[in-house]
Design brief:
mainly alpha, extended
Length: 153
């Protein structure tokens, strides 16, 4: 008796490009997890908070519209609203109304937020370098991806 329907289909081979992309995604996940853990443990802030503070600190006016901050951090409007609420509760940022458009809201970094970001930046850089070096040593595919990206020399 023959089985009904086609037999198992072999998966198409994975291209070098797709394989490299998978290694980059794996690296990204590993590094993000290490960064998040180090920032939380040493400075009591999450990775999104760190990145938001960085964008605010880098702004010439120390402020960004909520939507602009959402775009820079890669969050939707609802998520950035919660993020800014956490920053505000911790006194790292305040909300301010846009003088030209009363519907517009800015997020403004405070001195406390600027100080926390500066302190956490050292941890971020140290952890990032360590995580990339660890990945490079552990997995030759990741090492090749890092080299291709110019992340290691």
């Amino acid at each position: 008796m023959t089985p009904a329907g086609p037999g198992p289909v072999d998966a198409p081979p994975v291209s070098d490009l797709a394989a490299t992309w998978q290694h980059i995604l794996l690296l990204h996940t590993r590094v993000e997890n290490k960064l998040a853990a180090a920032l939380q443990r040493r400075h009591g802030i999450g990775l999104s908070e760190f990145r938001a503070l960085g964008h605010l600190a880098a702004s010439p006016t120390s402020e960004l519209r909520m939507q602009e901050l959402a775009d820079k951090v890669g969050l939707n409007q609802s998520s950035v609203t919660r993020l800014v609420a956490r920053l505000s509760t911790a006194d790292f940022a305040v909300r301010d109304l846009c003088p030209d458009d009363k519907r517009g809201v800015y997020t403004v970094i405070t001195e406390t937020g600027r100080t926390r970001h500066a302190e956490a930046s050292h941890t971020y850089e140290e952890t990032l370098k360590g995580a990339l070096e660890e990945a490079k040593q552990a997995d030759p595919h990741l090492a090749a991806a890092l080299t291709a990206l110019g992340a290691t020399r």
